[in-house]
């Protein structure tokens, strides 16, 4: 702790005095570092530990070699670890006019042999000799320190006779002996005498092996107001109370005690501690409050980390503690039930149940009823499985609540109804929960809200309707750091609010970053407003449609050249037995036996070869468009009529056929025709097609259909006409033709 700067150390010690046990103190320290140090009400504990004695630290200038640093009135000669064996003289100058506070800790000062050792400390009002392994103080060693008011002897190896050597100390008012090595055994009866320390009002004896504490040994300290004996091995039977009319604060934390010390005079029933305002009893074996207590001035009671598992009705009633206003119940993890009116008291305003891991199923709806509660700390509870309705019912009994702390409590959802009954709420802490969204206007009914902490949740966006204008203008502190902001169009409004009201937003330890790109803080988000004209859903639809169109277009472009390949393959794969073809031939009325599709440039071959062999030789009637198309008819109509009026279709592929658009039309139409009637094209090639760049339809036909290649050699020509005759077998058959 001595490593900390003076202000930080003082603030930390203040927190430790408020909390009851070492564990709760550690928890408080963690929240100081997390930025939630304001979870306790102000002025809950004004007295400060002596270890907050100011230290010049690294802020002062060297005033004795390189071993001491000084400021205007403080000298820090600590941590020399045996290399500084005496208290140096500090000569006044314009920067250090008068040194009155000395930190001489961590110097391996094993003993103070005589008063001569202190000759240079006669002007000191504050002296820190902690962490020195100090084991001996000579009688009268402090006799020259007439101005000394604060003395710290923590973490040494002292005996009671060494403490006695400090006295008389006429102005000493604060004496700290934490872990000083005292005991085992109680304070001797003669340690404090009538004139030992007439002004002493604070005595700290924590972490010594006292075993027993008879307060009668302290009666010579007539002005004693603050007494702490935490973790001193005390039991109920070893603590003896006597009248201490000036005592204001008593701390007996972390002792093996099952009940509060005796507070009533056994003879007349009056209070032994009529001015006691603060009683710290955390970390003890306390299970209940069964006895009668005479504490008329008690305002603050600390029962943190005890064994209380049931808070019964009127447990802290006005009769036991008539002026109780503050109740600290940190780290009470054994709580099984809080009954109705458990905290009923006309003056109780502050309750802290932090780190008790409460579940509301164990809390009666009227647990906090009938007390004018303004401050409630229940952070680090387990409220995740509790319904908002249950929370609202409990909070309905505290309409005067001004501060509510429910951080780190596993809350996943909040609703407007949860805060309906708290019109005076000023501060609300919901940090480190599991909130993923905030309903619109969820805090708008809290018209007095000035401070809101929603840090370290899982919020992704804050919109203009989350807080209405009145709520926005009323807030003075807003912490949304550490959330999982999704940096897209939905966050733009919050970004502008955040940048334009920097004084409103708490920076937090985790800052404001984009969860979808943690490299960049929210303030650096670059997103044009034009991009956000459409909603995110609309953009998704547009992108999906464009993507589908692109996929279809790309697929179609890739498939288009092979469309006839695919169709013919499927036709061949699923082709029937020919019943439709035979039925058409039997029942149809035809004008032609064969429709011939050819290019005009190939007419000589048609006339010289095809007509002579098929019409003259086989007595078939062929449809030749130069001869048989009806004059005046549309060419397309002629093609359709002639194909429909022909029993078979014969294609004559050639170089000219490839170049002719009408030939390609006839090919496409004839392909559809034969597919419709479960027929097949008769394909002939009068040119070498392997050297030609045929159309996709022609290539499909050539690859999938067996074609007949023309060759003018006598043997090849004979084979050609023989194969033609076989292909026309359906119409040459007498049965069919008849």
UniProtKB/TrEMBL annotation:
Superkingdom field: Eukaryota
Gene Ontology BP term (one): toll-like receptor signaling pathway
Domain called TIR: residue spans: 590-728
Residues annotated as transmembrane: 537-560
Annotated InterPro entries: Cys-rich_flank_reg_C, Leu-rich_rpt, Leu-rich_rpt_typical-subtyp, LRR_dom_sf, TIR_dom, Toll-like_receptor, Toll_tir_struct_dom_sf
One GO location term (cellular component): plasma membrane
SMART domains registered for this protein in UniProt: LRR_TYP (SM00369), LRRCT (SM00082), TIR (SM00255)
Signal peptide range in chain numbering: 1-25
Sorted UniProt keywords: Glycoprotein, Leucine-rich repeat, Membrane, Receptor, Repeat, Signal, Transmembrane, Transmembrane helix
Pfam family, one: LRR_8
GO terms for MF: transmembrane signaling receptor activity
Mode of membrane association: Single-pass type I membrane protein
Subcellular location: Membrane
Protein family according to the UniProt entry: Belongs to the Toll-like receptor family.
Alphabetical list of PANTHER family matching this protein: PROTEIN TOLL-RELATED (PTHR24365:SF541), TOLL-LIKE RECEPTOR (PTHR24365)
Record protein name field: Toll-like recptor 10
Organism: Oncomelania hupensis
């Amino acid at each position: 702790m001595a490593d900390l700067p003076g202000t930080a150390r003082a603030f930390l010690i203040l927190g430790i005095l408020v909390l009851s046990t070492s564990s709760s103190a550690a928890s408080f320290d963690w929240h100081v570092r997390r930025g939630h140090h304001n979870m306790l009400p102000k002025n809950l504990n004004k007295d400060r530990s002596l270890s907050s004695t100011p230290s010049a630290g690294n802020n002062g200038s060297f005033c004795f070699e390189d071993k001491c640093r000084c400021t205007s009135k403080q000298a820090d000669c600590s941590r020399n670890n045996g290399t500084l064996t005496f208290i140096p003289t500090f000569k006044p100058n314009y920067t250090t006019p008068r040194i009155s506070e000395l930190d001489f800790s961590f110097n391996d000062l094993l003993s103070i042999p005589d008063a001569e050792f202190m000759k240079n400390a006669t002007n000191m009002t504050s002296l820190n000799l902690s962490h020195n392994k100090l084991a001996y103080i000579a009688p009268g060693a402090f006799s020259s320190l007439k101005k000394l008011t604060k003395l710290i002897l923590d973490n040494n190896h002292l005996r009671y006779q060494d403490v006695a050597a400090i006295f008389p100390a006429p102005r000493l008012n604060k004496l700290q002996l934490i872990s000083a090595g005292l005991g085992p055994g109680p304070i001797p009866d003669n340690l404090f005498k009538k004139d030992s320390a007439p002004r002493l009002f604070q005595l700290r004896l924590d972490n010594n092996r006292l075993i027993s504490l008879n307060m009668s040994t302290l009666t010579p300290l007539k002005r004693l107001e603050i007494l702490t004996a935490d973790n001193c091995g005390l039991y109920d039977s070893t603590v003896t109370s006597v009248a201490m009319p000036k005592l204001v604060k008593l701390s007996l934390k972390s002792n093996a005690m099952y009940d509060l010390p005796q507070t009533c005079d056994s003879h007349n029933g009056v209070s032994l501690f009529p001015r006691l305002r603060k009683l710290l009893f955390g970390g003890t074996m306390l299970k209940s409050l069964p006895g009668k207590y005479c504490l008329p001035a008690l305002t603050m009671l600390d029962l943190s980390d005890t064994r209380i598992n049931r808070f019964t009705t009127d447990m802290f009633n006005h009769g036991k503690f008539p002026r109780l206003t503050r109740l600290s119940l940190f780290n009470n993890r054994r709580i099984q039930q809080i009954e109705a009116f458990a905290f009923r008291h006309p003056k109780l305003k502050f309750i802290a149940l932090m780190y008790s891991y409460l579940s509301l199923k164990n809390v009666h709806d009227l647990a906090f009823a009938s007390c004018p509660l303004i401050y409630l700390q229940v952070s680090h509870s387990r409220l995740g499985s509790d319904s908002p309705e249950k929370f609202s019912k409990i909070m309905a009994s505290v309409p005067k609540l001004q501060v509510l702390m429910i951080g780190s409590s596993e809350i996943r959802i909040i609703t407007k109804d949860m805060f309906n009954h708290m019109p005076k709420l000023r501060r609300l802490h919901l940090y480190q929960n599991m909130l993923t969204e905030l309903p619109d206007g969820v805090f708008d009914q809290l018209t007095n809200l000035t401070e809101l902490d929603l840090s370290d949740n899982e919020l992704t966006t804050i919109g203009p309707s989350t807080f209405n204008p009145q709520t926005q203008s009323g807030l003075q502190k807003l912490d949304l750091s550490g959330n999982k902001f999704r940096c897209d169009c939905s966050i733009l409004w919050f970004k502008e609010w955040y940048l334009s009201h920097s004084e409103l937003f708490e920076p937090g330890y985790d800052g404001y970053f984009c969860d979808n790109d943690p490299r960049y803080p929210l303030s650096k988000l670059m997103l044009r407003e034009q991009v956000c004209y459409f909603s995110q859903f609309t953009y998704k639809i547009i992108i999906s449609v464009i993507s589908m169109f692109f996929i279809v277009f790309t697929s179609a472009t890739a498939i288009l050249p092979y469309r006839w390949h695919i169709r013919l393959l499927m036709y061949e794969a699923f082709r029937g037995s020919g019943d439709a073809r035979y039925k058409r031939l039997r029942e149809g009325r035809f004008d032609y036996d064969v429709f011939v599709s050819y290019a005009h440039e190939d007419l000589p071959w048609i006339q010289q070869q095809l007509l002579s062999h098929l019409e003259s030789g086989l007595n078939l009637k062929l449809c030749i468009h130069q001869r048989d198309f009806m004059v005046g008819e549309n060419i397309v109509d002629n093609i359709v009529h002639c194909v429909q009026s022909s029993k078979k279709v014969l294609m004559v592929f050639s170089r000219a056929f490839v170049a002719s658009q009408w030939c390609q039309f006839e090919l496409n139409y004839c392909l559809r025709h034969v597919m419709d009637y479960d027929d097949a094209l008769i394909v002939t090639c009068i040119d070498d097609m392997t050297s030609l760049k045929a159309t996709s339809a022609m290539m499909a036909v050539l690859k999938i259909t067996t074609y007949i290649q023309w060759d003018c050699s006598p043997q090849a020509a004979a084979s050609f006409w023989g194969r033609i005759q076989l292909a026309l077998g359906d119409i040459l058959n007498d049965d069919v033709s008849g």
